[in-house]
Design brief:
CATH topology of chain B: Rossmann fold
Radius of gyration of chain B: 17 Å
Largest interface: A-B, 25 and 26 residues
Distance between the termini of chain B: 23 Å
Helix content of chain A: 55-70%
Number of strands of chain B: 10
Distance between the termini of chain A: 27 Å
Number of strands of chain A: 12
Shape of chain A: elongated
Number of helices of chain B: 7
Structural class of chain A: alpha+beta
Order of helices and strands of chain B: EEEHEEHEHHHEHEHEE
Strand content of chain A: 15-25%
Oligomer: heterodimer
Chain lengths: ~400, ~230
């Protein structure tokens, strides 16, 4: 019997008992769709984070107090504007240094008010990070030097407070102090779970006075190129340690942030995929079980086929192909369902999904492999049946 | 003339809980081309075991079995399957048709294992079905056919490979007397017109009396062999 003929015989046999074939496939369908969906969500989340971190700008060093070790308690900020000046001297270009001092404050216009994140910054922020101005202008150096009460609004802040009106030139009240709006950011979206359209920038000097503090929370440096990131970071950290012997500082690159987040996501995706893989295994055991039942039920058919000239391997091949067909058809349905489920999750939650070619190939390969592995035992048993015994069975 | 199927001093023992139980002892029998013989005997006399040996479904534990002139002890399971396909046509008491499969595809089944292409298989199957009087039933499934029709489909399946011998195990056992008579007549016609040897296992003395040779078995041995008048 040719292989093509064996396929036809196997397809006929599966079609003859559609309900059982469908139920047998179900285990594989669920397992494969779970694998495809979870891998897609994991890959999508990873891609989203990568894009967001890279979307901040290129060749960035983020300088923060404490050690970058996502478990250790953050230490109290000790950086001040004089530290920033020292770092600016090391960097040699004020336009490559950005700072932030943040606080949650109520911003008010007339009867409308909004609780939002107010950031004290240098006028260099749009040169270090990717931030585009939609209307008006950004803060100027003289705004910072003279602690002017001027503000740049995030796009959603502007929409909430001013509706469709142009806020530039209008007054807003931040923590009870009047500010003049000089600009509005173009919409930018979320970054690492923070809505970056929901913030207000004011000069850092004004912010220190407003919040009654000398501190600076974080500092970012844009290196001239990728190669200078690490040495520059080391020099900045060394300088800060000299100035504050009792506090640790670290300078982390975007790659390092991505590395840490990627590891966490990788472990999470791996665990989820392993759970899904177990369900695929259980599906395979189901296929094996049903095939054994099927061999038992069709003992007479096997005996008859042998009587009219089927060789042991013809029978074994037929049952093996049946098992592989069940799992691969189940695999294809599972892939389709998994892609659909991933898209539904992407539509209903902020987590995007990214269906990768390798996850589909893997899911298909694994389901075919499961069919072979779990089909072999029933197939061999069928092939070895004694025709005399088989024909006599009820 | 060489026998199409022959057993020489053949024995068949079964092992039950370590004890060996002989089902057949020292049986010698040859079926010649065009033969028509009946094998009779009470239940447990070994006639079914002999039938399975003659059909190559089983191998003797002693003595020789020659299928189409070849000693089966030298054949692998696959080669034995091939000999079955080419030399033997089986007709069973309970028909053994595939239930969800049309009469045409049931008849074509042995040709799958001979490597005949689908279109050719179906054509051959329809020709043979026409010969057994079922040209109008090719697309019917077994449950849409009467018992007599089902057995005629089974005969067509046995015939489609143009075997040298038809082995019929109680072919009328599940049929009423009229259908049984029709089936037996059909087998006899095929024997006469095509020269295919016919061996019928039965416990019905009247059926046995119609064969040219009658072999009587008891306790695993042939106790008499005589030509009918």
């Amino acid at each position: 019997m040719s292989i093509a003929e064996a396929w036809r015989v196997a397809i006929d046999a599966l079609r003859a008992s559609r309900l059982r074939s469908g139920l047998t496939m179900l285990g594989v369908v669920i397992g494969v769709s779970a694998v495809v969906m979870l891998v897609a969500i994991g890959a999508g989340a990873k891609q989203m984070i990568e894009q967001q971190v890279e979307g901040l700008g290129s060749n960035l060093l983020l300088v923060v107090p404490g050690r970058v070790d996502f478990g250790s308690a953050p230490t109290l900020s000790r950086m001040s504007l004089s530290d920033v000046d020292a770092i600016t001297r090391i960097v040699g270009d004020r336009n490559r240094v950005a700072v932030s001092l943040s606080s949650g404050e109520t911003v008010r216009v007339g009867t409308r008010s909004l609780f939002t994140s107010v950031l004290g910054v240098l006028e260099t922020t749009p040169r270090v990070f990717v931030r585009n101005i939609g209307k008006g202008a950004y803060l100027s150096r003289s705004d910072v030097d003279t602690s002017r009460r001027v503000a740049v609004l995030g796009s959603s802040v502007a929409r909430t407070l001013f509706g469709e009106r142009d806020p530039v030139g209008s007054q807003v009240t931040i923590a009870g102090v009047r500010f003049r709006v000089v600009g509005v950011f173009a919409p930018i979206g979320q970054s690492l779970g923070v809505d970056r359209d929901d913030e207000v920038h004011i000069p850092v000097t004004t912010a220190q006075r407003l919040f009654n503090t000398e501190r600076v929370d974080a500092l970012a440096v844009k290196a001239p190129d990728r190669a200078s990131l690490t040495p520059l970071g080391a020099r900045i950290v060394a300088e800060l340690r000299d100035r504050h012997p009792d506090t640790e500082f670290s300078a982390v690159t975007q790659e390092q942030i991505l590395g840490v987040l990627g590891n966490i996501l990788g472990v999470l995706t791996g665990v989820l995929a392993a759970i899904a893989g177990i369900s695929l295994l259980v599906g395979g055991v189901g296929v094996s079980n049903i095939m054994l039942v099927s061999v038992h039920e069709r003992t007479r058919e096997i005996g008859l086929r042998k009587a009219v000239g089927a060789r042991p391997r013809d029978i074994a091949l037929q049952f093996l192909i049946e098992a592989v067909l069940l799992t691969t058809i189940g695999g294809v349905i599972g892939i389709a369902l998994g892609i659909g489920a991933a898209q539904i999750v992407a539509a209903l939650t902020p987590v995007p999904s990214l269906v990768t070619g390798w996850s589909i190939a893997l899911a298909f390969g694994v389901s075919a492999f499961v069919g072979i592995v779990f089909g072999v035992v029933p197939a061999q048993r069928a092939g070895r049946l004694d025709p005399v015994v088989a024909l006599r069975s009820e | 003339m060489t026998a199409v199927v022959a057993v020489e001093d053949a024995g068949r023992e079964y092992r039950l809980d370590g004890l060996s139980v002989p089902a057949l002892r020292g049986v010698t029998l040859a079926i010649e081309p065009g033969d028509y013989l009946a094998i009779v005997g009470p239940s447990g006399s070994g006639k079914s075991t002999l039938m399975h040996l003659l059909g190559g479904l089983d191998r003797p534990t002693s003595g020789r079995l020659l299928l189409g002139g070849r000693d089966v002890s030298s054949l692998s399971a696959a080669e034995l399957a091939r000999q079955r396909n080419q030399v033997i046509g089986f007709v069973f008491q309970s028909f053994h048709l595939l239930t969800r499969t049309s009469a045409r595809d049931n008849v074509a089944l042995p040709l799958i294992y001979r490597g005949v292409r689908r279109a050719q298989r179906r054509k051959r199957a329809e020709e043979v079905l026409a010969r057994v009087g079922l040209a109008h039933r090719v697309g019917h499934r077994p449950n849409q056919l009467s018992g007599g029709e089902q057995q005629r489909v089974a005969i067509a399946r046995a015939l489609v490979t143009e075997p040298a011998v038809l082995l019929a195990d109680e072919p009328t056992g599940n049929l009423d007397s009229a259908s049984g008579e029709a089936v037996l007549s059909l087998l006899e016609e095929l024997n006469a017109e095509r020269g295919v040897a016919l061996a019928v296992v039965t416990h019905d003395r009247q059926i046995a009396a119609r064969a040219r040779r009658q072999i009587t078995m008891r306790d695993g041995v042939i106790v008499s062999e005589r030509a009918n008048p």
